[in-house]
Amino acid sequence: MPLDEYRRKRDFASSPEPAGAPEAPAGAGEEHFFCVQKHLASHLHYDLRLEHHGVLLSWAVPKGPSLDSRDKRLAMQVEDHPVEYGSFEGVIPKGYGAGVVMLWDTGTWTSESPDIDAALRKGDLKFRLDGYKLKGSWALVRTRGYGDSGKPSWLLIKHRDEWSGPLDITEFAPLSVKTPGADLADILASDTPTLWLRNPPAKTGDTGKLFQRIIAAALEQRAGAEALKEGAPRPAAKRAHAARTTDPTRRTAKTKAKAPRA
Fold this sequence. Notes:
Blueprint: H1 4-8, E1 32-40, E2 44-52, E3 55-61, E4 73-82, E5 90-92, E6 99-111, H2 116-122, E7 124-131, E8 135-146, E9 152-158, H3 169-172, H4 184-189, H5 205-230, H6 237-245
Antiparallel strand pairs: 1-2, 1-6, 2-3, 3-4, 4-9, 5-6, 6-7, 7-8, 8-9
């Protein structure tokens, strides 16, 4: 079954991720759902998901999508996900994929290849995206490499068109499209910011430092919210501001985010 591997890797008693319907219906028509989820786990990466045959075909893109047609971004194919996962945003407390998930972009995709299944078998899928952040013509091209899951690696490439250019879209528009104005620290603060004080999913390197900054900012937010409820002044405002301004997920001004389409 398409979702067997997805379900085998997860403990749904502890993870808020959707298990998926027993038989998700295949989409009809030319346009299908797509999303990109920004996932801070053992490493920060972006998950591209394309709806096809009732599941979300999924690729982990370590550096995120690029609008520059000269870039070839590595995209490691991972297990198919249920369609319901396309609206998921939240905190995975432990186990496979433990970390913070942000719904970074969403919209519809249309194949530019006449036969999607044939294009996937060939390893050359051309398609158009119509999202809030990603638009225009793209390609997924399979390479000779394989990831840890034994699934093939691909390259995600932006075709040159009116939507391509040198803008770093992950820096320019870093925030959620589901929760307007929310960054990774906001998402953690709305859940359990004390979760990883002793054992974060990444402890060393740049990702470990990023976790520490986000945990600190989330704790400040939660403390401030609780103080406001009690009518007390917000504590450590300067430290909270410093944590946010040094967090690379907050380096740009907040963009106006729309609610995602259903």
